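D-xylulose reductase (mine drainage metagenome), 339 aa
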Amino acid sequence: MPFPHIIFRRAGLVELDTATVDPVVSSPNEVVVRNRFSLVSAGTELACLAGLESWFQMPGTPGYIAVGEVVARGEAVARVAEGDLVFTYGPHAGLFKIDVTNRWGGMCIRVPATLRADFAPFTRMASIAMTSLRVSRIELGDVVLVMGLGLVGNLAAQLAALQGATVIAADVSARRRETALACGVAHVVDSTAPGWKDQVRDLAGRNGIGTLIDATGVSSVIEEASAVVAHQGEVILLGSPRTPHQTDLTAFLRRTHLPPFVDLKGALEWRFPTYREEFVKHSVERNSEVIMDLLASGRLRIEPLYTHRLPPSKAPEAYAGLRDHKDNYVGVVFDWSQT
C-alpha cells in the first residue's frame, strides 16, 4: 500500500515520494503508526542532507520525531493500544513501523490528552535539551550560561530556569535573543559584541557562571565561552561538535586539571537507557514524560519557537528555510493530514 514520505534523494535534494508499506504487524514487538505530525531536527537533518553523517545513507527518509495514531500492535506490546496517540522516534513518513524493543528507535509512549497533538513532537527536542540538566550540578540559586538559542538551546535555557537557576543566554542572532526573552529567559547577550564575556560576568555577579551549556556544537565557541566559567564550575556539551578546530589543547585542558577545576561533560541523550530500568533513576522515557507534562501545563513555552506547520509537499522549502533563514525557520512541523 503506497504512503507518502520525505526523501533525501542525494546531497542537497529533498523530495516527497511514495513508498509501499504493509500496514499489518509483522512481529510481536511491532507497532504500526499513522503519522499525524513530525518535527524537523534541524541540526542533524541538515547534516544528513549535506552528506556529513556517515550513518545516514542516501537516498533515505530522514526524521526521528513523529506523533501519530496506533493502527496495529503486536501481541507483546503492552505500553500502548490501537487508537492511542503516541510520541515516537518515527520518520517523516505517512505510515511507519516501530520495534518497541529497539534501543535507538523504539520509543513509543502515549501522549497525554491535555497536550495538543502538534505540540507533542517538541518533546524530543526538549528531552534532548534536558540531558544537559540531568548531567549537571545545577541547583537553586546557580547562574547558568547557555550558548546558542536555536530550538534545543532555548529549551535548555527554559529548563535550567525551571530547575532554579538564573539563566543568561547568548547568541549571534537578535531574533533568537528576542524569542528567548519571549520564552521567559531572564537575560540575553549578543555574543558578537565586544566585551560580551565581561557582560556575562557582570550579570552573573559574585557567584559567577556555575554551568556553561553549549548548544552550538561549535568548538571555537565552546573554547571561548568556557573562559567565563567560575571556580569548580562545569562545561556541558549539549550540541554535537562536527567541524575541526585548531587550538592549544593544553591550555584548555589545564582549566580542568588545575584551578579553576572546571569539569567537562558530554550530554548526548543516549547516555541514559531508553526505557525505565529498576536501578537507574533517569531514562529517555521518563524525561519525555516529564517534558510532556511541562508542555501541557504551559510551564515550558514553545509557541514563540513554533514557526511553521507545513504540508509534507513543502519539504524542500522547509529545509531550505532551515538552512538559509535560521532566524525565521525554527520549529518546523509537517502536518501529515495534508497529504
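The domain at 136-266 is CATH 3.40.50.720 (Rossmann fold). DSSP finds nine helices and 15 strands in the chain. ok done for today
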